[in-house]
Design brief:
This protein is of the alpha/beta class and 366 residues long. The protein has a domain of 143 residues: Up-down Bundle (Glutathione S-transferase Yfyf (Class Pi), Chain A, domain 2), CATH 1.20.1050. Helix content is 36%, strand content 23%. A hairpin with a 2-residue loop joins strand 6 and strand 7. 44% of the residues are buried.
Length: 366
C-alpha cells in the first residue's frame, strides 16, 4: 500500500535565522497539516524555504547557496530531512562557504533532479502574487514547476536544453560561422525542446481538467503563447534554429524555442485576462491553480507536499474555511504560515510557534 508522501522530520543547521532547529511531523497529526505562526521576521518562511529545497531548483525564494547561510557565523548550512514516499528516505542538503549546494540521498551523492522522484513539492508565496503582471520568465518558471510535478524527467530535459542553449549563445556572441559547431547543439536543443513542450502541454491539460469550476476559487482558462510561432517537433525545431542563426547572431542570443514561451491566463467565468483582474481575483486564481495541481497529483502520482506562505491572511473568512476544507479533502501534507493563531481557528493541524530571541529563531509546539 502506498504511503502518503510527506516530510517526517526536518533538521536545520545555520540555515538563515535558524541556528539549530529539529522538528518532527507525526503521521496523521492534524490530517498532515502544519500551521506555523509567529511575528514577522521570526523565521517562519525560512522553514518553508528549507522544505522547498527538497525538490529540484533554487527553492521558493530562488536563493543561491551563499544567500542562505546564517550570519554572522557564515560557517555553511545544512538541511536534513526524513521523507516518506514509496519508502523512507533521508535527504541531506548542505553548502560550505564558497561552495555550491550538495545533495545526498540515503547517504549517497545525487543530482538535484533525483529529488523530483521522491517528493512533489508545490508552493504559493506572496511574491507569486505578481505572476500575471510580471514578465514572462516568472510564468514560465511557474509552468515548469507544474510540469515537473507531473513529470520528474522534465528537470533533466530542461537542464540539457539550457546547457546546449548556453553553448550555442556563446558561439553566437563569438561570431562563429562554422555550421558544424551549431548543428550538434541545435540537435540537442531540438530533441530536449520537443520533450519540454510535449510535457508542458500535457501538464497544462491535467491542470485545467483538475480545476473545480463550481468551487470557491475561480477556474482559469490557460494557454501557451510565444512572441513568434515555432515548431514543437524535434525536426521542425532543429530547422527553425538553423534558419534563425543570422538573426540570432545579430542579437547575440537564441530567439526561437521553448525558452520563449509565455503562459496566458484568464478568469474563465468572467472572460477577463488575469493581468487585468483585481489583486484579490489574481490571488484567488493562483490558489485555484495550486489546488488543481495538488488535486491532479493526488489522483495519480500521489499527493504533493504543499507550502502556503501567508495565504490565510489574505482570504476572507469564507474562502479561508474553503481552503482548509480542500486541504482536508486532499489529505496532503501542507505547511501554512501566518502571524497569529487566530488565522488557523477551526483547522485540524499540528501547530508550531516561531519566535526570535537574540537573532535566532526558536520553534516550539503550540
Amino acid at each position: 500500500m502506498t504511503r502518503l508522501p510527506r516530510v517526517a522530520a526536518l533538521s536545520l543547521s545555520h540555515f538563515r535565522s535558524h541556528r539549530r532547529t529539529r522538528l518532527r511531523f507525526p503521521a496523521g497529526a492534524g490530517g498532515g497539516v502544519v500551521a506555523v505562526y509567529g511575528p514577522n521576521g521570526a523565521g517562519k518562511t525560512n522553514l518553508l524555504e528549507a522544505i522547498s529545497l527538497l525538490s529540484p531548483g533554487r527553492g521558493m525564494r530562488r536563493a543561491g547557496a551563499e544567500e542562505i547561510v546564517r550570519r554572522p557565523e557564515a560557517v555553511g548550512w545544512r538541511v536534513h530531512a526524513e521523507v516518506i514516499a514509496e519508502d523512507a528516505h533521508e535527504i541531506e542538503l548542505r553548502a560550505e562557504p564558497g561552495e555550491p549546494r550538495a545533495t545526498r540521498i540515503d547517504g549517497k551523492a545525487a543530482p538535484q533532479a533525483a529529488l523530483a522522484r521522491l517528493l512533489r513539492v508545490l508552493w504559493l508565496t506572496p511574491a507569486m502574487d505578481r505572476l500575471w503582471t510580471e514578465g514572462a520568465e516568472g510564468r514560465r518558471r511557474f509552468l515548469d514547476r507544474v510540469t515537473l510535478s507531473f513529470f520528474p524527467a522534465h528537470a533533466d530535459g530542461a537542464l540539457a536544453y539550457e546547457k546546449a542553449m548556453r553553448d550555442r549563445n556563446r558561439l553566437l556572441r563569438d561570431g562563429v560561422r562554422d555550421a558544424h559547431w551549431f548543428e550538434a547543439l541545435e540537435l540537442q536543443m531540438a530533441r530536449s525542446g520537443a520533450e519540454i513542450m510535449e510535457r508542458r502541454r500535457a501538464a497544462l491539460m491535467r491542470l485545467v481538467a483538475a480545476q473545480d469550476p463550481d468551487g470557491p476559487f475561480p477556474a482559469a482558462d490557460l494557454a501557451l503563447a510565444a512572441p513568434e510561432a515555432a515548431p514543437e517537433d524535434a525536426d521542425g525545431l532543429a530547422g527553425a534554429l538553423a534558419e534563425s542563426r543570422p538573426r540570432d547572431m545579430a542579437a547575440g542570443r537564441t530567439l526561437v524555442g521553448p525558452h520563449r514561451i509565455d503562459l496566458e491566463g484568464s478568469y474563465a467565468a468572467k472572460g477577463i485576462e488575469a493581468r487585468l483582474c483585481s489583486t484579490g481575483e489574481q490571488k484567488a486564481l493562483l490558489i485555484s491553480l495550486v489546488l488543481a495541481n495538488a488535486r491532479a497529483l493526488a489522483e495519480g502520482a500521489g499527493a504533493p507536499v504543499l507550502l502556503l506562505d501567508e495565504v490565510a491572511a489574505h482570504l476572507d473568512e469564507g474562502r479561508r474555511a474553503a481552503l482548509y476544507a480542500e486541504l482536508e479533502r486532499l489529505g496532503a501534507q501542507a505547511f501554512l504560515t501566518g502571524t497569529g493563531a487566530e488565522l488557523f481557528a477551526g483547522l485540524d493541524a499540528q501547530r508550531l510557534l516561531v519566535t526570535e530571541q537574540g537573532g535566532e529563531s526558536r520553534v516550539e509546539d503550540a
